[in-house]
Amino acid sequence: MSDLEKKNDSDRPDVEALERPDVSERVDKMTERKLLSKLDKRIVPVIMWMYLMNFMDRVAIGNARLYGLEADLGLDGEQFQIAVSVLFITYCMFEVPSNLIIKRMQPARYLGGLAIGWGLVATFSAFVQNFAGLVACRLLLGFFEAGMFPGIILYLSMFYNRNSIALRSAYFFSVAAISGAVGGFVSYAIGFLDGRHGWLAWRWVLLINGIPSIVTGLVIPFVLPNSVETSKFLSDEEKRQLYVLRHTEVGQTVSGQQLHKADIMKAVTDWTTYGYAFCGFCQNIMLYSFSTFLPTIILDIGSWTRPEVQALTIPIYSLGAIAFLIMARIGDITGKRAIIIIPFNFIAIIGYVLLLSNAGTGASFTGCFFIGIGVYTAGGMALTWLTSNCPRYGKRAFSSGFQLTMANAAGVPAPFIFANSTAPRFIQGYSTTIAALCCSNLMFLTLALYWRRRNKRRDAGLEDYKMEGKTEEEIMEMGDESPRFRYMY
């Protein structure tokens, strides 16, 4: 046994009593609903709030721009775009390493520590005096925020099975849309502080957005459990039932939920890891450019004041969140992913075509709603698709971490495709995003057809030879390589 595996075996409190459930036992639907409801009440509101704080801190710079950040700091040329993009350098560097250590570091404490770190950096960003200071703060912000998103995706997979995780991920990921609405409202209100105590409104935007994250980080370790086994709000019987729910799925064994080098290497050598990562990059070209530049886009397509622009972002983000929650529920019920993702990417493409057409304020504003509907549903469902097909923890940790690393790498070029020199039409930005979404859809279709073919082979018994000579336990340990496992597509 490797040192890595030994360390992970030591991080298994109170597991032995649950280690060998009766595999023939089943949890009835009513009991399952009650268990999921209990988890939802404890976990979902906390992670939603945490991600709300995270995303608001990250994109606050877009709102600060409207209130004079560039002029006050003397930024010229593409310096604002550089400041936006450098966050993703450190962000991408530390996502995979963070995913590989989160379980050993105790997830609740680890996530809380990250929140305190990025909250402090976001708060002190309000005091920067020049371009260099702004870049330094953005690099630090990326460092502390890197582990949050992939960490929460991985954290949810420790509690929910693959038939219930899409909706819970949607609750959390829809906050990206909600944060746009809340951020727009908060920035609208903060705009009236312009000039108070000698500070321009953009400094107040950064300061007021950062402080709640610090408080959130202090509270998280006392509210979130580190695992099912250590959850004090669950009875021993409820823990056992949750264990049965998870471990009656193919590949969900005790050993399979520990970090093993062999599982990491399987992720490294699996071409679908890179397929999902490619899609993540293409999807986030849209996500980061849209979330950062939506206020600027709205400002340029109509005759509104800056506070009015902030208010107009609210219904766009809100509709995006509602659409995602509805489709995630449908995805959990049907077990389908691609049939939701691909059409919603096309909806976003229609939105960009409307913006490109420059057919008037009404058409362009309608286009923003189409993009809002597509951006969160397609991107969020893609994240749950990958984790649903990786039952073993090590493969899931690396694959989802790498997917998000590449997805967030899109944050580096995204600001530059909406360069100041291309305003107000932003033809380069809209066209590039359409091309990225077309490439993403082609890869999603390829992945769906590949998983469909694998399932058909297994239905026909063409991979049953892999089980020859193996015990029942060894077959369960095979994870997604087991002929009994069926991929979601």
TrEMBL record:
Keywords linked to the UniProt accession: Membrane, Transmembrane, Transmembrane helix, Transport
Asked if the Swiss-Prot or TrEMBL record annotates the protein with the keyword S-adenosyl-L-methionine, the reply is no
Major facilitator superfamily (MFS) profile domain mapped to chain residues: 43-458
- Membrane topology field: Multi-pass membrane protein
Q: Does the keyword Membrane apply?
A: yes
What Pfam families does this protein's entry cite?
Answer: MFS_1 (PF07690)
Quote the PROSITE patterns the UniProt record gives: MFS
Query: What does the entry list under GO cellular component?
Result: membrane
Protein location: Membrane
Membrane-spanning intervals of the chain: 43-61, 81-102, 114-133, 139-158, 170-190, 202-224, 274-299, 311-331, 338-357, 363-386, 398-418, 430-451
Q: Which GO MF terms does the UniProt record name?
A: transmembrane transporter activity
InterPro entries xrefs: MFS (IPR011701), MFS_dom (IPR020846), MFS_trans_sf (IPR036259)
**What's the protein here called?**
Major facilitator superfamily (MFS) profile domain-containing protein
UniProt source species: Exophiala mesophila
